[in-house]
Design a protein that fits this description.
Helix content is about 45%, strand content about 15%. The protein has about 250 residues and is α/β, with parallel strands linked by helices. It has a single domain, classed as 2-Layer Sandwich (Nucleotidyltransferase, domain 5). Strands 5-4-1-2-3-8 form a six-stranded mixed β-sheet, with helices on both faces. A two-stranded antiparallel ribbon has the order 6-7. Helix 1 packs antiparallel against helix 3. It is globular. Bound molecules: zinc ion. Zinc ion (ZN) binds next to helix 8.
Length: about 250
């Protein structure tokens, strides 16, 4: 079994909407959670129990105000390392996925519906390749209850109503064992990793800040030079020079 942690970034009034996250083998979950708790325990008192919420952490807002920029940068790099190399001693490194949707390119689409369909199709593709290679797994998506449950329940209803007319609806994708499950992001640090991925993909496309995405790229699902895990949904992908569009044109 693989767990797919999902989060999103990009408010309605911005150019981009991003869905991002990671899959990890069930046996990789505990070592990863332990590594994240270990990082949290090294923080000064007031930040120890805090969520690793990428936006406030980057800006030094809220509980992160009293944490020095150096400490925040160190934590960010430690998270990059966990995402690209996996937890120390674990054989199960995460695989990253993200869809960055340029809203204006799809004026007649429901942004959430289009982006989430594309997103859920990607881990489905990875698990299909694993199954073809003799390593069959199912997957369960896990998302933050407070921020994503309403959106995803609405989409599930839409996809159910569309029935077989859409190949990308999560309920019809072979890899998914169950509908998405919802947890409190405070209780799951792996959900916080999904937030980290979504945030830094959003920063790359919305703000042209690729400092972290560049480092995360090797961890996205890929085969040779084809990056399956990172998708840039934009009308002009033929002229875009981002790694996802370059890979798509190959
Ligand atoms: Zn692009």
């Amino acid at each position: 079994m693989h767990l797919l942690y999902v989060d999103e970034a990009g408010p309605d009034n911005r150019e981009y909407f991003v869905v991002g996250g990671l899959t990890i083998h069930e046996q990789g979950v505990l070592p990863m959670a332990d590594a994240l708790e270990q990082l949290a325990s090294q923080l000064p008192d007031r930040a120890r129990g805090a969520e690793f919420h990428a936006g406030p952490m980057r800006r030094g807002a809220g509980v992160w105000r009293r944490i020095t920029p150096q400490q925040r940068a160190q934590l960010r790099q430690a998270l990059v390392e966990l995402l690209t190399q996996g937890a120390p001693g674990s054989q199960h490194a995460p695989v990253l996925f993200a869809v960055a949707m340029h809203r204006a390119s799809f004026p007649h689409h429901d942004t959430h519906e289009r982006a989430y369909e594309e997103f859920f199709a990607r881990p489905n593709g990875l698990l299909g390749r694993l199954a073809n290679a003799g390593d069959p797994h199912r997957c369960v998506a896990i998302a933050d209850k407070s921020t994503l449950e309403a959106t995803l329940q609405r989409l599930m209803a839409v996809w159910r109503a569309q029935g077989a007319s859409t190949g990308a609806a999560i309920g019809r994708m072979a890899a998914y064992a169950e509908v998405p499950l919802f947890v409190d992001s405070q209780a799951s640090r792996l959900i916080q990793l999904a937030d980290f991925v979504a945030h830094w993909v959003y920063r790359a496309y919305e703000q042209d800040d690729t400092s972290v995405l560049d480092q995360l790229l090797p961890a996205f699902d890929s085969e040779g030079e084809s990056i399956h895990g990172l998708v840039h949904l934009i009308h002009d992908y033929r002229t875009c020079v981002c790694p996802a569009c370059i890979s798509r044109r190959r």
